[in-house]
Each structure stands twice: as C-alpha cells, then as structure tokens.
Predict the structure.
Amino acid sequence: MVSDLPTLIESLAQRARQASLAMNSASSEEKNDALEAIACGLESNRKILLEENQKDLNAAEENGLSNSMVDRLRLTHERIDGMAQGLRQLIDLPDPVGAVIEKKNRPNGLEILKVRVPIGVIGIIYESRPNVTIDCAGLCLKSGNASILRGGKEALHSNQALATIISEALTASALPEDAVQLIPTVEREALNHLLTLDEYIHCIIPRGGEGLIRLVAENSRIPVIKHYKGVCNLFVDASADLKKAQKITVSSKCGRPGVCNAIENLIVEQSVAEQFLPSCAKDLTEKGCTLLGDERTRSILQDFEVSPAGDDDFHEEFLDLRLSIAVVNSIEQAIEFVNRFGSGHSESILTAERARAEQFLNQVDASSVYWNASTRFTDGFEFGLGAEIGISTDRLHARGPMGLEELCTYKYQIIGTGQWK
Amino acid sequence: MVSDLPTLIESLAQRARQASLAMNSASSEEKNDALEAIACGLESNRKILLEENQKDLNAAEENGLSNSMVDRLRLTHERIDGMAQGLRQLIDLPDPVGAVIEKKNRPNGLEILKVRVPIGVIGIIYESRPNVTIDCAGLCLKSGNASILRGGKEALHSNQALATIISEALTASALPEDAVQLIPTVEREALNHLLTLDEYIHCIIPRGGEGLIRLVAENSRIPVIKHYKGVCNLFVDASADLKKAQKITVSSKCGRPGVCNAIENLIVEQSVAEQFLPSCAKDLTEKGCTLLGDERTRSILQDFEVSPAGDDDFHEEFLDLRLSIAVVNSIEQAIEFVNRFGSGHSESILTAERARAEQFLNQVDASSVYWNASTRFTDGFEFGLGAEIGISTDRLHARGPMGLEELCTYKYQIIGTGQWK
C-alpha cells in the first residue's frame, strides 16, 4: 500500500460519494445491465473464485475455525449459481427510485412532490460469508446507492476475487466504477477511520453477530441501522386453538433454530397450561429441544427434564434447540413479559378472541406482531419485498425487514411560478 | 439531589420508557385533553412564569449575555399566549398514530398491515428559548411519544416553571405523568450519561447551533436526527425571468436573513450575469446586504463594494445580511457547485426550461429542491405538515421539515389463521 491507511480510506469514501452523485441519474436499464454483467462475471470466473476461496479455506483450517464457520466461508458451484440467481432476481424487481410518494398542491400555487431517491453512500460491515459481498453490492446498486463493503478477515481472498468481478463489470457498464468498493484491508484501524467519515458516508449497516453490531454502533459517527438479535416470544392465550398452537410452537422453535425469527420464549396462559404444556413438551423434546421453565412450568412438566429459567435465560437468543417457558396469569402479564424480555423483533399471540389479539397487537412494542401465525414469517421475501438486506431492530428509518425501498430516502421537489415570501 | 447524577438520569429514562409503553394506547381524545390542560395551565400561571423567567433574565444580565440572547430568553404575555395557541393548533391536527400506511394480502393467507406508531422515547436537547419546552412537549405528546427535555442553563428557572405546569396537567390527565420530563440539572455529566441510554431512549433531536448538534452527534449512542445549518443556493439560469429572479434573490436573502432557509450563495449563468448582477446588486446593497463574489462577479460588479469570496465563504451559513455570488459557465457547473458547497437543505433553480429544471431537481442532492421559487418555503407549515419540530438535514428516517408523522415509526401487524412454516 503506497499511502497511509486513513488517507486510503478517506479517498475511497470520497470516490464513493462522487459515484453516488452520478448514481442519482442512473436509469433502471443501466442498473439492471450492470447487475447482469456481474452475474455473468460470476459464472465465467468460477475457477478463480474457487481457487481464491480455497486459500481462505486453507487458512481457516490452519487457524482451527469451527466446522460451521468453514461451511459459511465455502464457495461451491451451487453457491456461485445462487449468487448469480440472486442478482437476476433483483433485475426483475421494480426500481424503487423516482417513485412519487406524495403530491400536494399548496394554496400559494406551489406543487410539492415527495420523491423516493437513493440514500447515497452505504457502508456494509459483515463477517465471514462471501456471498454477502454480492448480495449487498446488488441491493445497493439496484437502489441507486454507492456501497463500501468491509468483509471479515477470514474471507479476504474470496471477497477480493468477487470485488474484482464486480469492478470489471462496472467498468464495462454505464455506472460509475466506484459504485461498489471493497476495503482492501481488514485492519481494525481502517474500519475505525471509516466510521468517522460522516461527510461522505450516509449510513452504516452491520451484518453479523451482536458483538460486531455493538462495536460498529458504539464507534460510528455515521447513522447505523442495527439488525440485532431476535428474542421472539409466542403467547398461547386461554382461547387459543391448542392443536394449532402446538404445531406453531414446535415449528417456530425447531424448524430452523439458528435464525433470528425463531422463538426463544413460549408464554402460556395459566388456565390452559396444564392441558397444553405436557403434549407440547413431548413433541419438542422428541425433536431434540432442551426445555427451561419458570416454577409453574416446571411443576406442570414434572415428567420432563426442565431446568429453571431465570431472567437471563428469557433475555437470551439461544439460536439453538433450547426453549424457555413461562406461565402467566393474564394477557396483561404476557404483554409485560414480551415488552420486558423481547428484543423488539417478532412476537405472536395465539387466540380466538379479537379483542385480546388487538390488545396484543397494539401494546406489544416490536417491529412485527402476529396474531395466529408463527414469528418465522418475518422476512423480506415473506413480506413481499422481493429481497432483503436484513431485519432492522431499530425504530428510525426502517423497522423490520428492509428491502429496496428501505435502502432509499426521499427528497422534496417543489415546482413554482416565481413564488417568494 | 439525593441520588447521584447517573442514577437520577437512568431512573428518569426508565420512567420515560414505561410512560411510552402506556402512551401506545392513548386515544386522540386523551392526548388532546392533556394538550388543552397544559394550555390552560400556561394561561393561569402567567404570574409565576414571568417571575421565574425574570430570575433567568437577571442572571443573563449579570452574565453579560448579548441582547439577542436575552430577547430569546424573555417570556411576555404575548409569548405565553403564543405557546398556548401553538398547543391548541396541535389539538386541531389529525392524530398521526394508528394510520394504516400499507396493507397486503400474501398468497399464504397472511394479512400484513404496516401501521404508524410512536417512536417511543425522544430526547430533545436545546438551547435558551423556553418556548421550545412547550413546543416539543406538545409535538411529542400529540405523536404519542414520551419526551425527555434538556434545555439550556440560561433558561433553567423558566423551564422548570413550564415543566411544573406540564407535570400538573399530565397528573390530572389520563396520560402517564412521566410522558414529559425535564432534566432538572444542566450539568454536562447528566447530558453525557443521557446520551448512552439507548436501552430506554430511541431518538435524540438536538435543536440549536452547529456546536450543540456536533457535541450531541459525536457523543450519542442513541440515533440522532440532526438539524444542521442551511447553506442554501439560488441558481439563476440563462433562461430565467430576470425580474422575478431579482425579486426572489432579494427576498430570499433579505426577507429574514437569520433563518436556515435563507440563501447564502447566488449562482448566475455567465450569459446573463452582466445583465442581471448590477441591478440585483443595487437592490441588495440598498437593503443593507454585504456582497462577496468570485473573480467574474467582482469584475462585473466593479461599481460595487464586493469582497473576494473563497471556498470558506461559499461553505458558510452567514445568518446575516451577507451574500456570496459566483458566476458559472453551465448548469452542470452550477449543480457541481451546489453539491459541493450546499448543506443539503434547500436549493433552487430559476429557469424557463423544463429540461434544465429536471436536471437540477434530479441531480442536486438536498432535502428540498425548488424550480422557480424561493428556498424560504422549506418549512413544516408551508409544506402543509401543520407543525414542525425542525428541518432535518439527515437522510435517514426524516429529511427536510419534520412534522408529527416524522415523529412516528411503524410496526407490522400480521394476521393469520394458524400459519406456520
């Protein structure tokens, strides 16, 4: 590297800002052509991609990374196809930019349009999965944003190979070459400096574990949209259809326990607890799920192995086949429980009574609140967004699944006939 | 104070969070009743308000505050009426909470509603004007948010008197008493601690000068919506109606030079500069405006006193009767100038040609971009929002004038019939 690190990062950010100004005028066709060019680049550079990925895999093995880490790192023909396919799905989605969100005519004759526009420059900080590079570059391009990508050190060779493919595709396209840039180093100093450059970068999205997100949020002077953990709760009310409730409980815990929209806590209204819990616990334990419970749960489930659950357990995102269970006296207590222990991600009530459902939907403070459905549906595709950069647990700008529209902001265009005041 | 400062601030923030959960279910009527009670409280406590305000005014004089600072601090019968009137205007505005922003039916039978809800707990950090206390408390109440107010030290007695009136009104109302809380100290330590409490506080809005905003933005772990300076530009294109252009130039600089939507830079296309500038400069100087200019401007305006304008001048928000002028070769140069020197607040092009107007409207990166109108219209009331907490120069969440809807976020309510996956 010829220049020092802060200078390098600053120049990269400046170029991203310039690219983002040019991206404001990019047509849908130009953006789609660039996406297709990247997809073709992936397909025609499989050999290099796999070779570079092998370097990362070798290093991972030397460094004793866990099997699941190595698996996340690995590129295969199938995964390369998957990345290309993801880009082509983006091509088919409507362009979010330029839509008139609102239109007003004011008494003084001014016409005010609220128009959707790209945010500008978005920094994505992520961990070891190399497909995030393509995923995020594609989402940012389609939404008219310039992006700065900073992947994990384990995937550096793979990411650099992917960045070269993107860069070649952009150079041959009508879009600015600097519309996607990968930070060519994983030094912490580079990241720290990046997070101070609020003059050029408008938004930071960290994608990864809680540690990474906290690190970024605490050090960033640039607004961060956080995608924190999902401590999701399912409440089985007295009037719930208990057969459906069992199906939903088991599937939303055991279907895919490692995802953020899986439930971590089951809450049962006391009057149905004795009827519901034993049968449900049997089903759960047969699927290999470990149970934790409060006192009442443990006394009902005496025939099962249920460890005591404390506040820390109810607060925890297990990401595993573990479930904490609490018995409550009333819906009010359930709502209090959810607002206390939930992480504001996805919460569900199962009940036959509309009034209770409405109480839960209104009083529970979370991005996605369900009545008679599994929390597992919190997902950009399930919500019909077509794509997703993540699920925001923040309240400002975007809450819940973030798609292309959520990667945009708006501007007012005001058309007059010489008005002054 | 019985407890130490961090404990005091933390307990205040916790109570705000509890209040905000209760505010989620507050009806429009309950909120409006509380606003009316505060308005009545202001009117029936004039004597105490003026007495407490006099203490602040005396201290201000002792401390040698400038006349304009003292004026901002002063409460009068008229200003008390103004505050009460502001609250009653809020009562008349529609409740932003509960509106269904979007509704979707998914192929699996799920019904997904995107519903507008309060953000939660909002911290407002401001300077010396005591009316901001009432203004912000009212806006936050109407939008269903709990607020934590931290005013300037110069206005502490006035603010405490106002907070007492609010608190008495809330106690007698159906809303939680802690829905509005004033931090009872202006110690910096209290503010610094407040800005770390992202567990309880969801958004910080600093209202004041650039120094205050930077201080808050750099120290806050909570998302901040910034209302930075307005370096607004007016571009007179070759095809502009020069008579109207002169009227708009003079009014948008001299009408009220101390506000953020007044212009700081005038940009003139070279082919009309010789015709336009002398007449416009005459008008401006007659109104007491000091002129600065680039080389071409100064050579055209040889008969006027025009100091040389450098990059620093074009970057500066004068908030005063001073105007920097630049002559450019083309609309492209004008757009580049605006994107370089403007602060992303409000920018205007005066032109008769639609194609150029569209180029400017699309390529200029600012919250509000005008065609043939003064930048002075960037304002919540002029935009029909009915009220305004400020003008955001940020891109995330809210951009431009922020009214009641922008003090809200959304949540998804998903209604199923037992769906699981």
User: Anything to note?
Assistant: The longest strand of chain A covers residues 408-419. The mean pLDDT of chain A is 96. Chain A touches chain B through 66 residues (CB under 8 Å).
